[in-house]
Fold each of these.
Amino acid sequence: MDAQGLHDLLAGKFGERVSAFQADALQPWSVVAPEAIAEVAAFAKADPALAFDNLMCLGAVDYPAIKESVPRMELVYHLYSYTHRHLHVLKVMLPREGASVPSVESVWGVANWHEREVFDMFGIGFTGHSDLRRILLPDDWEGHPLRKDWVDPEFYTGMHVRPTAQMAERFQAGEKIGIGPFDFTPFNAHVDE
Amino acid sequence: MTNSITGPIQNRFSETSLVFTTVDNVVNWARKSSLWPMTFGLACCAIEMMATGASRYDWDRFGMIPRGTPRQSDLMIVAGTVTLKMATRVKRLFEQMPEPKYVISMGSCSNNGGPYWKHGYHVLKGVDEVVPVDVYVPGCPPRPEALLYGVMKLQERIQEDHVLRRRAASTGSLAGASMAIEAIK
């Protein structure tokens, strides 16, 4: 089935909640209403004509306000059917702040880790997720670094996150090539003056 | 008796004999000749490190036998990108190693953050922020020859060391950086 047919099948079932088909794309996509994504996902997997048995990828994109564009977050679901060998993309448009959508973990188990990663990097919530916590960053990390408004903190547990002028000086002075200036006498870790 | 220089070394000292040297010389020679590195790789540099350990470059020639625990290791080769999350673990592993212990920082990431210098919210800008580094090996990643050269540089430094003499505290690379360590549990 071609992309138009796939979209028509989804739109026929969900009406207004599956809208804005974009055919002129490398991978044609349909826009799904946030609250409907879990239902649409369940249908896309269960329906024998669609049979999307594989969630290839689940990611998010942050679109901050640029010129007149509406600031938004997009969730992108890449679906693939091993049965029919066809592919379709679902997009969910969300507000940039405090967004939350139903989890599709119950449909595709692989979404568990994908949704945790999106939560980790963008701060988007997934209702119904069995274990929504950070997956890559440390548990005590603050903020979501793939958001466009992210600014590096100065420290994380006492370590510099942004390079300091002193670091740059040492690097430019060539101290970090070959033998370092550090006096590595075995006892020096415990030397007291 | 014949004194063949090609025979086993014990043949050359088969008669009762004395060798004079210094304690420094012997101990340093022993230390530098059996640098046991910790089996420990963080990123792509670790692939080059494995190549250095494998048959073609064969760091067994230096008496380097990878150990699976910091308790038995003399040398930590920080091979790869040190993320902030990993930095706390690197610090802990270093602390678990017995003295004397040495650190080789391998590759640009480990030296100063490398490509993550500016745009890396998650990368430590040089492993010398958390552990004292003896030798920095530049490269992205360094070839095995470079790492071996770094090991030989470290051996040179070990040979110059004074075993039974304490030195004053260093004002070296950790002067500005070590303060960060205190906060790491």
Note: Residues 95 and 113 of chain A are 22 Å apart (CA to CA).
Amino acid sequence: MIAIIQTYGSMLIQALGKTLLLTLLSLFFAMIIGMIFSLMNVGKNRLLNFIGTAYVDAVRGVPLIVLTYFIYFGVPTGIQMMGASDFRMPALVAGTIALSMNCGAYMAEIIRAGIESVDKGQMEASRSLGLNYGKSMRLVVLPQAIRTMIPSIINQFIITLKDTSILSVIGLAELTNMGKTISGNTFKSLEAWAIIGVMYMIVIITLSKIAKRVERSANRGR
Amino acid sequence: MADRKIKIHVQNLKKSFGKLEVLKDMSIDIFEGEVVVVIGPSGSGKSTFLRCLNQLEVATAGSIIIDGKNITDKNTDINKVRENIGMVFQHFNLFPHKTVLENIMLAPAELKIMTKADAKEKGRQLLKRVGLDSKADAYPSQLSGGQKQRVAIARSLAMNPDIMLFDEPTSALDPEMVGEVLAVMKKLAADGMTMVVVTHEIGFAKEVADRIVFMDDGAIVEQGSPQEIIMNPKEARTIDFLNKVL
């Protein structure tokens, strides 16, 4: 165990860094994707409703590993066939896209549920004062929705962090991939995977502790 | 009343929810400064009628002309129209994440009708007017029902509307709090506000209304002065309803 940490310590830290980078990038884009598609879903425009639902259904209907292969291998092949024969997609980009799309679909559902949990009278009261739909959403409905969304968002945050391990299949040097490398090089599977597991655990427990604090302070004063 | 200015002109208004026809061809003129109280059994369409007046419910057919502007017209900027029409709801609908003062300031400051400082000043004045100046920094959850509704009235007054709509403003209140809300409404009426009030408070209607409109089954059955409607109702349905509520 000590030998592994001595030999691979700095690489493990780097791999953890990549895991966190993937998580943060994906969450950032997932938030944007989630916001866009949830707003499509809660509005009254049928076409936008359809697009919003279709996106969520499509992405949730495909396993993340398949989505990852599709984006990393499938999409570049398609683009090459259309003429850009030297097109390449870096694994980090493909991984971030796949994870963002996946997490974004779940985020859209979380945000939609949050918005729908706010009493309809709130929107009506705001509209009756002359505020338009967008302002009413931003100033009145969303601030209330976010409160109910926080626990689910934290949960999604943790799921996304764990889902980065799936991106090891396209060769991203994140934590799980590092586990494969170490156990392959040293034949010490037990120690290698125990170390990897504990590293995930430490990060996730730390994050959920921080998140709990955020949640508490968001609920304060009401 | 013939020489008074028509404030709200409703012509052949119809509203359906799917196959259910809630308003069947309603027409009414409401004059400037008039207090019209709409009464009727539940399900008669009176709330729907009120909500059509600021297009929270989009009319299925017919026209509503307010200050010469057809608000059912798709090209009318409904947000601008609504700035001029305050609405008070049965369940108050205060914004729980904002303080009382912030609730009142939100629309005028956000719509740049006045500066933040002016909106604040105006908010304090309005709170004084409804007798709640000590509650400016409280959150809605810290108020009683009657106080919430008075704040809601202050909030809708912040935009300086010249029409106020009340949708059963006292129905969700404990009996001992009804009086304080009605008192604020009476003051408003005395100040010359054009008001349309849906309510079950017959006593208030009798005292404050210039005209009472009795609705049933999506249409106006009978209308007239409180004297005429409450003391001498002519239609069987009006008599029947009043017997039940009085």
Note: The CA atoms of residues 11 and 178 of chain A lie 8 Å apart.
Amino acid sequence: MHVENITKTYGQKTALQDVSLSIPKGSIYGLLGPNGAGKTSLIRIINQISYPDKGQIFLDGQPLQPHHIKDIGYMPEERGLYKSMKVGEQAVYLAQLKGMSKADAKKQLTAWFEKFGIMDWWDKKIQELSKGMAQKVQFIVTVLHQPKLLIFDEPFSGFDPVNANLIKDEILKLREQGSTIIFSTHRMESVEEMCDEIALINLSKKIIEGSLMEVKKQYRTFVYWVGVKTDREDELKQALQNYQINETTFKSLDNDWQFSVELGKKSPSELLQTLLAFGEVTHFSEQIPSVNEIFIKAVSQ
Amino acid sequence: MSVLNLIIKREFIAKVRNKSFIVMTFISPLIFVGIAFLIGYLSNIRSEVKHIGVHDESGLFVNSFKNTESYQYKDITHIPKNVINDSVLAKHWEGVLYIPKLDDLKDFETDVEYISEDSPSLGFVSQVERVMSTQLTKMNWAAQGIDTLKIESSRINVDLNLVKSSGEETVKGLNEIKIALGAGFGYMIMMFIIIYGNMVMRSVIEEKTSRIIEIIISSVKPFQLMMGKIIGTTLAGILQFAIWAIVGGILFVLAQSFLGLNTSTLSQTAEIAQQSPNALVGIKMYVQEIMSLPLLSMLMYFIIYFIGGYFLYSSIYAAIGAAVDNETDTQQFMFPVIMPLMLAVYVGFFTVINEPHGTVATIFSFIPFTSPIVMLMRIPFGVPVYQIILSILILFGTFIGMVWFASKIYRIGILTYGRKPTWKELLKWLKY
């Protein structure tokens, strides 16, 4: 899917300014950004709930058209179902709105309900279910019509760890089956864990986009965490005076001297050789920037 | 099945399954029939007989006042005048008519008194005045040597024969039937618009507060959702009216046969017939006239105006529902919506009845916000076809414009949370 030069304004307020994204087929794409950055506006445009002032969206190479709604599944952050309608009836109705036949919807729904072991919810009303239970139904409703593109806004909020894991596994399974997944969340650990690609939107503009690896490389600092067992700390400090050193602590089972080193123009093996001359190296690792750090750094710039 | 049909079906089922719908549908006819009986019973109770004392010093009116079911007159000329006030206070009499002895008949115009605690009804006063005036006039004729018989025999009463241009004869008083019929239809439309318009609005608010709206409109266009909602609710309403008509009809027939209301109306008819040989003919003509009213085409117009008016208003209701977060916030928007409806009913009752084809009535039967009610009230009096067609065209044209307008507000409103918009903001939404 490609988003090309989307601009959207509401009156005086600009929600999106010239935003372009390319979302590879079959990937899990993390859409990140602080609150009010324009993520929801973008998601609504992809869902054809609202329309851009400028720009275009292409799905599988075709400009987005009304019939594409059956290829898209959307789980909004604010979950909602008809409170006084029965679970089964409601899910079938929503699937029918997405273009499924009644019989097909019932068949698929039965399969999902059996998989999650919730067949006895079929004739219950949403208001009789707990929040987490309703979330589960919501997830099923989103994926029932086997969309090519799935959009999840904070998919794990409201789930206990067991159910969050269950949903995570299902999302990964859907990707294996060829679905493209857009993931909007503030939970960086799930981005770290699941996303192949990420984009960061801040103040209506896209500021970062790329595969998780590339983005991390881009924000690489070449800082290494080092632990050394040595009697000659002062001499070692002397030997490392060409490097930027900061004392730090990390978890270790040894009673070692811990610090971080900025590599500068030197290579890691040069540093390692210097260190080895003074004692036993117990720890040597590159400090890879977490998505969380990248997020904070990029947004505060 | 098309998406619109799906939405209509869901809305219809959701409304019909609702407990309040079931309760309303089956309890209302019972209440209605109950009220009808209560009114019938109350109107059959004779009001208390009022005793009126006549203190006639002139002695001219001793036998003039005839006792009726409500008023009994008694000559109390023997009671001294200074006691009258006390006896009225002591509730011996409802009131006392004090007629002094006067030499000049002309003085009776100003010098007769009616003494009472409570102010008398207008009907009673004019009755007394008429009796006395007639008698005094006759006496005056006699006194001045005018031949009373000649006056009576030369009196000419014109009784217009009402004939339609098509040549059929009609009956006077038939207007009342037309008014009742037109008013009934107009009133029904107003009630329906308010009740079911509110239902549409509540349903929109419910979708908004339960946040399902975002899921639905990622599948369907807001316009489709709005129209589906309006049509689905209309069907539920029509079903309710159909049930009312059938249940009400059955209950009424049953009630009539049980309580023998039928025979009493028949005997009343017979009484009237005895009073005047022409009355029977008159009644026959009434029945014929009602039958000859274009009932079928009136029903057809009712349905057309009903659909046009209801759609027009419920699209406004839908837009209001979309603009707010909860029902209490709707108050500020409700008044401008209900006002034209009330105005239409008032115009209908006060203007159409007096002058069904007057300027005011005609203008209001073209304004789309009032035409469903006002035009329906005019139709029984015979409205030129071109006027009806024009009024329907304006109504449906406005309806389309209003739906467009409402769907714009609806589209923005359903995704706007947390603030109570003003009219100005709503207008701004139109531009988005």
Note: The two ends of chain A are 29 Å apart (CA to CA).
